[in-house]
Design a protein that fits this description.
This protein is mainly alpha-helical. The chain has one domain. It is built from 15 helices and no strands. The longest helix has 28 residues.
Length: 285
């Protein structure tokens, strides 16, 4: 239980530092300037750029919670506008500009130390069955401490996310099933995800029916006792699969990383860069 608690606290402390790429205006503007015609095309292309010019099927499988038809509206068409290398370079430069604008003044020393700690955590990651994290782990390390923090936070986020997909599949949940049970926990509002995951209303109803038949949701779409137990197991399994970075850091290193990351993440949230609640379910740490 202590390991699970530490994994959750580290995720909550660090994830906002990664998530600026989705909510700040600079990455979206940079993708448009590169020629990508929609925000979602920039999202899908940018997130998989280190893996090369992938098509929709592997990306939908890795992302899990997006409807395959939605992914197919962006990939592989994105690569006709820009190469993965150009997308990656543009994305990282936009994040650099974002962090220079949004991080608090005088945070350089904290960022340098946090970068060291998060890179130690990344060095402890295993990448078996984790394609997104593996791809991002091969991106060259930047010189700028803020960008080092962002890249390490990105690898850790995708490492945990890949593990979450593995745990959800093991629990017998489709991507939409995973989303509906997440909504039913109350951690993320329905309106924050229903319109941006690409599933049809018929698919939502089919998932609700399937989960009700399994005894995981009641007639009002709320978690039953069995559904709540499944979600707890899912999070515990995700934490267990994310344990290797914590082991690399050790208890003291983990606590130091949390202590350094929390004020930076809170600043990003409190200054309006990252909204809470959000579709990621990332809370204010």
């Amino acid at each position: 239980m202590q390991q699970s608690s530490s994994a959750q606290r580290l995720r909550q402390a660090v994830e906002p530092l990664h998530a600026v790429v989705y909510f700040a205006p600079e990455p979206a503007a940079a993708a448009r300037a590169l020629g990508l015609p929609s925000w979602w095309m920039g999202y899908f292309a940018g997130r998989v750029a280190p893996l090369g010019p992938l098509g929709p099927a592997p990306v939908a499988a890795m992302f899990h919670v997006f409807a395959p038809a939605m992914v197919a509206r962006s990939l592989p068409d994105a690569w006709a506008y820009a190469s993965p290398e150009a997308v990656l370079e543009t994305r990282t430069e936009a994040v650099r500009a974002t962090l220079a604008r949004t991080l608090p003044a005088g945070s350089g020393r904290s960022l340098a130390r946090l970068a060291e700690l998060l890179e130690t955590a990344v060095a402890g990651c295993g990448f078996e069955g984790r394609p997104l994290a593996a791809g991002w782990s091969r991106v060259p390390r930047p010189a700028d401490p803020a960008m080092r923090v962002w890249l390490a936070a990105t690898v850790l986020r995708e490492h945990r996310g890949d593990g979450h997909v593995l745990a959800a599949v093991h629990a017998g949940l489709t991507g939409l099933d995973t989303t509906l049970t997440h909504v039913a926990t109350g951690d993320v509002p329905l309106e924050a995800v229903q319109d941006n995951r690409g599933w049809t209303e018929a698919e939502w109803e089919e998932s609700r029916h399937r989960l009700t038949e399994r005894g995981l949701l009641d007639g009002e779409g709320r978690l039953t006792g069995a559904g709540g137990a499944l979600r707890r197991r899912l999070e515990e399994d995700t934490d267990r699969l994310a344990a290797s970075p914590l082991a690399a850091l050790g208890a003291e290193g983990t606590e130091e990383a949390i202590r350094l990351a929390v004020p930076l993440s809170r600043h990003l949230i409190d200054s309006g860069v990252l909204p809470v609640p959000n579709p990621m379910g990332a809370p204010r740490p």
